[in-house]
TrEMBL record:
It comes from the Bacteria. InterPro entries: 6-PGluconate_DH-like_C_sf, NAD(P)-bd_dom_sf, P5C_Rdtase_cat_N, P5CR-like_CS, P5CR_dimer, Pyrroline-COOH_reductase. Residues 160-264 form the Pyrroline-5-carboxylate reductase dimerisation domain. SUPFAM superfamilies: 6-phosphogluconate dehydrogenase C-terminal domain-like, NAD(P)-binding Rossmann-fold domains. Residues 2-96 form the Pyrroline-5-carboxylate reductase catalytic N-terminal domain. NCBIfam families: proC. The gene is proC. This is Pyrroline-5-carboxylate reductase. The keyword Lyase does not apply.
C-alpha cells in the first residue's frame, strides 16, 4: 500500500515516523507535500521519503491520502486535488469539524473517505485516534487504515457523532495534561526542586497513573482513594482541588473544545 500526506507539520510528521518505524510500509511507498521549500527539504532529509512539489503528485502516487493541513486550508486543497482522485483511493482526514457530509460535498459523492482525529502523543507511539468512514469505504479498507494508524498508538472506530467528543477527550487533551504537568512542576520548583527534575517527577507520575487506569481496569475514583491515607497529605490536596473547581474546570474546558469543533 502506498501512503501520501498532504501537509507535513506536527501531526503528519509524527504519523509518518510511526508508520516508517513499524516497517509496515517502506520509505519508497510514502510521499508528502508541504507549502514551503523548507518543509519539503525536511521531508526528504529527516523523514527520508519523497517530497512532492504539488498536492496532485501525492494523489497520483498514493492509495491512501491523508489530508494533514489546517482545517482552514481544506477547501483550497480539496479543490486542487478532487479531479485526480480515483474510485479505489481512500482519503483520510484529520481535521476537527469537517464532517463526512461536508467532505463528500466537496470531494465528490463517489469518493471513499475516512474521518479521523489523532493526537500528538503519536510522536512517541502513544497516540489515541478515533475514526469513522463513509459508506463507500469497505470494512476491509477501514481495517487496513486502522492497522496503519496503530503503528503510532491506539485507534478505535467510533460513530461519527462521537468524533467531536474525541477532539475534547484525546485530540486536544494532551494540551490540558501538559498544563497540569507544568503546574505540578512549578509547585515543586516553588518548593525548591530543580526544574528539570520537577518535570521528570511530574511527568512520570502522570505516565504511571495513566498506565494504572489502563492496566488495572479499576475506576479512577478507586485509584484516587488508594492514594488518600486517612488524615494524610493527599486528601488535603484533593480538598483544595475540589475547592478550586478542578473537575468542573476540566469538564467545562473539554465541553468548550467540543463545541468549537462542532462549529468549525
Ligand atoms: N497538532 C495537533 O495536536 C493536532 C492536529 N490535528 C489536525 O491536524 C492537521 C494539521 O495540524 P498540524 O500538523 O498541527 O499543523 P502544522 O501547521 O504543523 O502543519 C500543517 C502543514 O500543512 C502544510 N500546508 C499548508 N498549506 C498547504 C497547502 N496548500 N498544500 C500542502 N501543504 C500545505 C504546511 O506546510 P509548511 O510546513 O510548508 O508551512 C505544514 O506542513 C489540522 O487539520 C489539525 O486540526 C488533529 C489532531 C491533533
Ligand atoms: O487545536 C486544534 O484545533 C487541533 C485539533 C485537535 C488538536 N489540535
Amino acid at each position: 500500500m502506498k501512503i501520501g500526506f498532504i501537509g507535513c507539520g506536527n501531526m503528519a510528521t509524527a504519523m509518518i515516523k510511526g508508520i516508517l518505524d513499524s516497517g509496515k510500509v517502506t520509505a519508497e511507498q510514502m510521499i508528502a507535500s508541504a507549502k514551503s521549500d523548507q518543509t519539503r527539504e525536511k521531508i526528504s532529509s529527516e523523514l527520508g521519503i519523497a517530497a512532492a512539489k504539488t498536492n496532485v503528485e501525492v494523489v497520483d502516487f498514493a492509495d491512501v491520502v491523508f489530508l494533514a493541513v489546517k482545517p482552514q486550508y481544506y477547501e483550497e486543497v480539496i479543490s486542487e486535488i478532487k479531479d485526480d482522485i480515483q474510485k479505489n483511493q481512500v482519503i483520510v482526514t484529520i481535521a476537527p469539524g469537517k464532517t463526512l457530509t461536508w467532505l463528500s460535498e466537496r470531494l465528490g459523492s463517489e469518493v471513499k473517505i475516512i474521518r479521523t482525529m489523532p493526537n500528538t502523543p503519536a510522536m512517541v507511539k502513544e497516540g489515541m485516534m478515533g475514526m469513522c468512514k463513509n459508506e463507500l469505504v469497505t470494512d476491509e479498507e477501514l481495517q487496513q487504515v486502522k492497522e496503519i494508524c496503530e503503528s503510532f498508538g491506539k485507534a478505535e472506530v467510533v460513530p461519527e457523532s462521537l468524533i467531536d467528543v474525541v477532539v475534547g477527550v484525546s485530540g486536544s487533551s494532551p494540551a490540558y495534561v501538559f498544563m497540569f504537568i507544568e503546574a505540578m512542576a512549578d509547585a515543586a520548583v516553588a518548593d525548591g526542586m530543580p526544574r528539570a527534575q520537577a518535570y521528570k517527577f511530574a511527568a512520570q507520575s502522570v505516565l504511571g497513573s495513566a498506565k494504572m487506569v489502563l492496566e488495572t481496569g479499576k475506576h479512577p475514583g478507586e485509584l484516587k482513594d488508594m492514594v488518600c491515607s486517612p488524615g494524610g497529605t493527599t486528601i488535603e490536596a484533593v480538598r483544595v482541588l475540589e475547592e478550586k473547581g478542578m473537575r468542573s474546570a476540566v469538564i467545562e474546558a473539554s465541553k468548550a473544545c467540543v463545541k468549537k469543533g462542532r462549529e468549525m
